[in-house]
Amino acid sequence: MRIALFLWVWLVCAGAVAAPVEPATLDRSTWPEQLTSPALFDVASRAEILAFAHALMVSEALDESALKQRLGLKIINVEAIDALRQRMWQRLLTNYNLAQQSCDQDASFCYYVDDMDSLREQAGKFAIADDSFYVAWAEPGREFHQRYLDEQLRMAALLPQISSEIALLGDQEVNGETMHDRLFLLTFDSGPTQLPGTTDWLTGYLRKQSISGIFFVLGNSLQVRLDKEGALALQALYKGQCVGVQGWEYRSHSHWKDWQDSIARSAALVNQVVPQRYVPLFRPPYGQRRADSGGFFEAQGMRVALWGIDAQDLATSLNGEQSAHRVLTLMLLWRHGVIAFHDTQDKVRTALPWLMNATSQSGLGWESCEALGER
């Protein structure tokens, strides 16, 4: 039985890497308006929602064989894909209705939508005319949403053999979907970097912006800095921020026999070094964790912190600005949520200032880092 299970997982994993795809991004310069008001944020949001809804509807016409071919997988979980589609449709309907509240200020992309049937109707016929003010965005936007949708469907297709941020596994998990409209939370994985490094620049930048984020640290990296600098330096480093854990080292915690020790050791170290900044949250590397881990986290007084907007800043194909463009497009689409960057990537030095500048007048807000663990 164990051999058969191993072969099954191996086949799924082999399918997962059989057709690697580059992460989706969208050049925001193709959008002809700056987001200089909440109403203009809504205009762009309505366009992204309708474009994604159109891509979602097109994907539903594919049979299982065609979907396997499109996703580059040999085995897919059709039930998980269908469940994801249903959740997406519900979020799109909610988000479009929120985005329509400013239609009296700017009616661009305002169509009659008051229920799921009318949203699907508008999504099915959504198109940008050749003489439209927004025509330069039309094809890049269509391509982005198809590729981004494929990213999401692919993760659902691999459930439950390969867990990810695409679905919650229990009550001990949070992903930011219950946050209020226009509220976003910044999170940063895999630090701290060694001095001098991006973590130091980033925490200083956030303090200057009066914004807090959650830094999910690796226990071994934190221990190295503690040994070199001492606790007071680390307390100064994370002043005004929150610190969660990502385990002792960056590796999947779904099939690692020492996963519990990895989390418990890291949490104990953070609680010892920066007790005032510690939040009892675990960010699983690669989003992978065990389906039966809920009891462990409950006993530890911890929750699993996932995300809904992935900057994909680990991808070599994206530079910092392209990563920021991806994040902004997904902020317009989902309208709230948890954003995942890596403070081990120098790209964030470009991505975050660009993002702050692009959204400074758009009426959105940055959630306090303590809020996620309270939800």
Give a written overview of the molecule:
GO terms for molecular function: hydrolase activity. It is an enzyme of class 3 (hydrolase). The chain is an alpha/beta fold and 375 residues long. It folds into two domains: 32-157, no CATH class; 173-374, Alpha-Beta Barrel (TIM Barrel). 49% of the residues lie in helices and 10% in strands. The chain contains 14 helices and nine strands. Strands 1, 2, 3, 4, 5, 6, 7, 8 and 9 form a nine-stranded parallel β-sheet that branches. The relative contact order is 0.15.
Keywords:
375 residues, alpha/beta, 2 domains, nine-stranded parallel beta sheet, 14 helices, 9 strands, 10% strand, globular, disordered N terminus, signal, NODB_dom, hydrolase activity
| Main β sheet profile | 9 strands, parallel
Provide the CATH superfamily of the largest domain: Glycoside hydrolase/deacetylase
Mean pLDDT: 94
Number of helices in the DSSP assignment: 14
Task: Give the radius of gyration.
Answer: 21 Å
CATH fold node name of the largest domain: TIM Barrel
CATH architecture of the largest domain: Alpha-Beta Barrel
Strand content: 5-15%
Structural class by sheet pairing and helices: alpha/beta
How far apart, in Å, are the first and last alpha carbons? 40 Å
**Count of β-strands:** 9
CATH class of the largest domain: Alpha Beta
Instruction: Domain count, please report it.
Output: 2
Which bin fits the share of residues in helices?
Answer: 40-55%
Shape: globular
How are helices and strands ordered from N to C? HHHHHHEEHEHHEHEHEEHEHEH
- Residue windows where pLDDT falls under 50 for at least 5 positions: 1-19
